């Protein structure tokens, strides 16, 4: 089989990329989705707060996904469900399998990687004690409650203050569970301020910063956890230990881009984002293979996933039509306070939004972008936090005026 | 003496930290720290009649689960009452986005509408 464009993943990123590529003139597209419906993780994110940027109104996750599903269907863009991609090669051969066709290969003109991310699994956490039933990632609990209608437990402790954990604290409280505490290892929250407010404060759920779970109790079913404060080196302080009885522990300790296929294709990953290193068009180091959405770097807002995926979709279309060009080669550098940027490099003179995250909470700070010694952008910020993705706009005139091969991003206090 | 109240605006993901000056009667006099005017509306509501949107799920006769939301905000203090009514209904087997599952839930004036499709 041959296809101009193969998109791996039918979540918000894959759908937005498909729509943008179609509108840019590529009709021979195939979306491959491993689940039994389009929509990706949004299908289980039944809370609202999606779409304010993209559609100018507040939507729930399934509603946001449906807007794109409708566009895909109206444009007649083909997709295959229940189809697992097992390999992508550097020369753009995509190998996939499903029950109907068995294993099959597609030679693609271009590939867009849009596999999303997954939760940091509990095996990766170093917590003493047994592994009784009742320990779930927040996303698994979300799937149980929102898609299957089962409550995983009644008395809950949440480790990690990522947004999914906060959202689940509210969700389970509304369904009658008692959420006893949210423990966050870091001295600041991993989730958005609005979620602390509406998911925890609204229900008087305590958020313990600089706290972690040090022991898990129970043999068959979870009976309780021991939590403790941590010192500045994140080592638990013995004297501060406290036992909390509970039957459920939710883990909300961050998301990791799901890049097995990317690695298999021999594409280098950015050590900080865990996703591919890309140029402004979201093209990886292999020409014609693009990446967008949470597989590239974890976003706070699906609206930005859609925006980024449209860039990748358009760029893939231009690549297929032979219209892409590489005029420059500029590397974006960071100072450590800025942990990473996406894109990581610029190869074209075009208006570009640069997204990044910071390493710590900074108050009354400045985002500074320099070309050598020349300050190009200096933007004051009251507050910068790791949980909140930042954006800087580079106009094409600014990019055309750059002297060096490097552009540096820093935070100055 | 006027009092001060610190609020996090929850209207959009920016989450502005706002300072609200309140009169003795608890009425908002001024709002600071909001990036846009929706923050002022939120602060006024939050200090006088706080409101929230409720999202949840309902089961269909077939056993399938459909997600729902209140189509406007409801008084914050009524969230659990609204949840009880949502958990008391069974939706028909064929539901589409926007279909009313409960009209005027708990007399709030808000409808509970489907946010996903059964298929
Ligand atoms: S004040 Fe405006 S910008 Fe700030 S959080 Fe509220 S709605 Fe968003």
Fold topology:
The complex is a heterodimer of chains A (413) and B (119).
Chain A: E1 2-8, H1 12-23, E2 29-32, E3 48-50, E4 59-60, H2 61-75, E5 79-80, E6 84-88, E7 93-98, E8 102-113, E9 117-119, E10 128-129, E11 135-137, H3 138-148, E12 155-159, H4 163-174, E13 178-184, H5 193-200, E14 207-209, E15 211-217, E16 224-229, E17 242-245, E18 248-251, E19 255-257, H6 260-264, E20 289-291, H7 302-320, E21 330-334, E22 338-342, E23 345-346, E24 352-358, E25 362-371, E26 374-384, E27 390-394, H8 396-400, E28 406-412
Helix pairs in contact in A: 1-2, 1-7, 3-4, 4-5
Chain B: E1 3-8, E2 17-22, E3 28-32, H1 38-48, E4 51-52, E5 55-60, E6 65-70, E7 74-75, H2 79-87, E8 90-91, E9 100-102, E10 112-114
The complex binds iron/sulfur cluster.
Keywords for this structure?
heterodimer; A: 413 residues; alpha/beta; FAD/NAD(P)-binding domain; 3 domains; 7-stranded mixed β-sheet; 5-stranded parallel β-sheet; 8 helices; 28 strands; 21% helix; globular; B: 119 residues; alpha+beta; CPE0013-like fold; 2 domains; 5-stranded mixed β-sheet; 3-stranded antiparallel β-sheet; 10 strands; 17% helix; binds iron/sulfur cluster
CA distance, first residue to last residue of chain A: 56 Å
Number of strands of chain B: 10
| Poorly predicted residue ranges of chain B | none
Q: What small molecules accompany the polymer chains?
A: iron/sulfur cluster
Mean pLDDT of chain A: 94
Number of helices, where a helix is a run of at least 4 consecutive DSSP H or I residues of chain B: 2
Radius of gyration of CA atoms of chain B, rounded to a whole number: 18 Å
The name of the CATH architecture of the largest domain in chain A is 3-Layer(bba) Sandwich
CATH class of the largest domain in chain B: Alpha Beta
Content-based structural category of chain B: alpha+beta
The second-level CATH architecture of the largest domain in chain B is: Roll
Summed up, the domain count of chain A is: 3
Binned, the helix content of chain A reads 10-25%
Shape of chain B: elongated
Q: What quaternary form is this?
A: heterodimer
CATH superfamily of the largest domain in chain A: FAD/NAD(P)-binding domain
Radius of gyration of chain A: 22 Å
């Amino acid at each position: 089989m041959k296809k101009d464009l193969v998109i791996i993943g039918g979540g918000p990123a894959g759908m937005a990329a498909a729509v943008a590529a179609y509108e840019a003139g590529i009709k021979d597209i195939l979306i491959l989705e491993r689940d039994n419906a389009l929509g990706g993780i949004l299908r289980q994110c039944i809370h609202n707060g999606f779409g304010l940027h993209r559609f100018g109104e507040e939507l729930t996750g399934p509603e946001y996904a449906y807007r794109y599903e409708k566009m895909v269907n109206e444009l007649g863009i083909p997709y295959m469900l229940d189809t697992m991609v097992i390999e992508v090669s550097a020369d753009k051969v995509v190998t996939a399998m499903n029950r109907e066709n068995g294993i099959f290969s597609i030679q693609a003109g271009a590939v867009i990687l849009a596999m999303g991310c997954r939760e940091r699994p509990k095996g990766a956490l170093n917590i003493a004690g047994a592994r009784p039933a009742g320990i779930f990632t927040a996303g698994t609990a979300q799937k149980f409650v929102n898609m299957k209608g089962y409550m995983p437990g009644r008395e809950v402790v949440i480790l990690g203050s990522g947004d999914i954990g906060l959202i689940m604290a509210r969700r389970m409280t509304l369904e009658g569970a008692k959420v006893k505490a949210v423990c966050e290892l870091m001295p600041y929250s991993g989730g958005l301020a609005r979620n602390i407010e509406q998911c925890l404060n609204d229900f008087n759920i305590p958020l313990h910063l600089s706290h972690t779970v040090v022991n898990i109790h129970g043999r068959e079913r979870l009976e309780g956890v021991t939590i403790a404060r941590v010192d500045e080196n994140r080592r638990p302080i013995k004297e501060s230990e406290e036992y909390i009885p509970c039957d459920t522990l939710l883990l909300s300790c961050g998301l990791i881009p799901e890049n097995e296929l990317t690695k298999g294709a021999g594409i280098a990953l950015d050590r900080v984002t865990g996703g591919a290193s890309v140029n402004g068009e979201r093209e990886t180091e292999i020409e014609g293979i693009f990446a967008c959405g949470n597989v590239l770097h974890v976003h706070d807002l699906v609206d930005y996933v859609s925006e980024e995926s449209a860039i990748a979709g358009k760029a893939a279309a231009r690549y297929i039509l032979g219209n892409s060009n590489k005029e420059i080669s500029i590397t974006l550098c960071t100072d450590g306070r800025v942990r990473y940027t996406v894109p990581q490099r610029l190869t074209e003179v075009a208006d570009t939004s640069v997204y990044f995250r910071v390493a710590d909470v900074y108050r009354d700070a400045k985002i500074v972008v320099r070309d050598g010694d020349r300050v190009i952008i200096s933007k004051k910020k009251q507050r910068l936090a790791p949980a909140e993705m930042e954006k800087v706009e580079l106009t094409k005139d600014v990019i055309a005026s750059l002297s060096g091969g490097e552009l540096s991003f820093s935070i100055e206090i | 003496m006027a009092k001060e109240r610190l609020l996090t605006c929850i209207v959009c993901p920016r989450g502005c930290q706002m300072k609200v000056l309140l009169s003795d009667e608890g009425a908002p006099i001024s709002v600071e720290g909001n990036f846009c005017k929706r923050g002022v509306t939120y602060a006024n509501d939050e200090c006088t009649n706080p409101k929230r949107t409720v999202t949840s799920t309902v089961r269909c006769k077939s056993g399938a689960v459909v997600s729902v939301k209140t189509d406007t905000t409801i008084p914050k203090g009524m969230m659990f009452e609204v949840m009880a009514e949502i958990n008391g209904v069974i939706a028909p087997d064929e539901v589409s986005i926007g279909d009313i599952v409960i009209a005027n839930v708990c007399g709030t004036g808000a409808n509970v509408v489907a946010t996903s499709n059964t298929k």
